[in-house]
Each structure stands twice: as structure tokens, then as C-alpha cells.
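Comment thread on ticket #2218

A.B. wrote:
> Attaching the input chain for the structure job we discussed in standup.
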Amino acid sequence: MLKDISFGQYYPTGSILHRLDPRVKLLIMLAYVILIFFVKSYIGYILFALMVISTALIARIPLKSLFRSVKAVIFLVLFITIINVFFYKGEGEALWSWWKLAVYVDGLVFASKMALRLILLVLGPALLTYTTTPMELTNAIESLLSPLKLIKFPVHDLAVIMSIAMRMIPTLMDETDRITLAQKARGADLDTGNIFKRIKAMVPILVPLFVCAFRRADELALALESRCYDATPNRTTYRVLKLKGRDFLFLIMFLVFMAAVILDVALPIYYPCDATWIEGFYDNAFFSLFGL
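C.D. wrote:
> Ran it. Output below, let me know if you need it in another format.
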């Protein structure tokens, strides 16, 4: 499961997306996350899915590796989908009911849209980390927050903290895998039993993991101190971020995509692939199943 977490992992291919200004990619991703919460129709989700897939193809990132990141949240997606299907009170008659549980057409539509939204929310940031190194993200955040220096906000300190945190994510995941394999080699049972037994079985993994994390933090602090590192003074960067023509091109392309999504949200267009389509599909499947 930990290997499926894509945040903090970088997939170098040398594509044009990898060479984009990290500030542009970060702003596009923030707008992507905000826009997806306003989508109400399946057409809007199809637009987002096409954008993610086309971006992955341009970046030459295997779709299998990209969609593998969804495994980390598949339990959450299934849980939220089941809750919405059985407890969402829609209009009209229920398709199926038992005790206090009922399935409505509106519930099926709402649950499917919530599942699509969660999956797309995972794929977008995963694509960002696949095409941007942690150091580039740190420099982008520091550059975007630089106006806060006027009010004496420690922007560089925050950037350093975020850089160290993102660099530690893959390291801690590898350390967790090693500890898990070591505990299994000693006879630890981590895969069987009920949920309480599995939580109790995680203690032999979490304790050495925390010890390892604190030890690495202490070693890093000593290394920074021995090199007289101080984040407070004004420091220069090895690579100065500058916008180029390809950055403006991708910004324009994303603005066109934003306009399409806003148009889909603003116009009161009814799509037959919503409630009526699902209700008809359910009826046809029901009657076909019983030969009626």
C-alpha cells in the first residue's frame, strides 16, 4: 500500500511538462483542485479525466503508474460511495429498501459523482509530483509567497521545512517497508485477524519507525549546524525561475479548459446521462435479469 502513495515521488522522462516552470504547474494544480468542486455533471468529470490522461501522455508517464496511486485511497472511495448510495435520500420512489436502508436514483448519481471527484483529486496532485521534483516545488512555493516577506513572514524558513518534509516521505516509506519485512521475518502476523488485531500488530512497526524518523531528524539538524546553515538571511538560488514561451502556452491551454468547465457549470443544460439514464439502465437490467 505504501508503494502506491505517489506524493513525493518523481518520474523523470525529460518531457516538456517536466521542463515547465514549477510555479505555473503549482498554480494550475491549485485551480484544478478548486474547479473540480464546482463540477455538477458527468460532462465536467469527463473533461477533467481527459485533461489528466492527455497530460500524462504528454509527460510520457505510464497510465498504469498514475492510476496505481488511486489504490492508496480506494478504501475511502468505496466507503464514501456505499454511504452515499444507502443513506442519500432522493426524490421519487426507492429502487430498493430494507429497514432504514434505501437506494434512490439520485443517491446512485450522487455517489458516482463523489467517487469520480475523489479519484480525480488524487490523480491531479499525483501528476504534479510525478513531473516536479520536491526542490522545484519548494522553490515555486517560496517564489509565490515572496510578497509575504514585506510583512516579515519567514518565507524561506517555511520553504526549507516543506522541502525537508517532502524529501522525507519516500525515505520513510522505504524504511516502513524494511521494518515490515523484518517483523514478518521474525514471525509477526500483520495480514490476518480482525481490524483490532491488525491495529495492535502495527505497534511493532510504528515504534521503530518513529525512532528512525527522530534519529534522521537529529542527524539532519547536526549536519545543517555543522555546515553553518542559516535560513534567515537573504539567500540566492542556484536556478532562477523564469517564465518561458511554453509556460504561457500551457497557461492559455488551461484557461481554455477552465472556460469549458465554467461554461458547463454555469449553463443549466440537462444531460441524459444523469438520473434518467441510470434509472432506465436499472429498470432494463432488472427486467432482463428475471426475464420480464
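A.B. wrote:
> Thanks. Noting for the ticket: The first strand starts at residue 96 and ends at 98.
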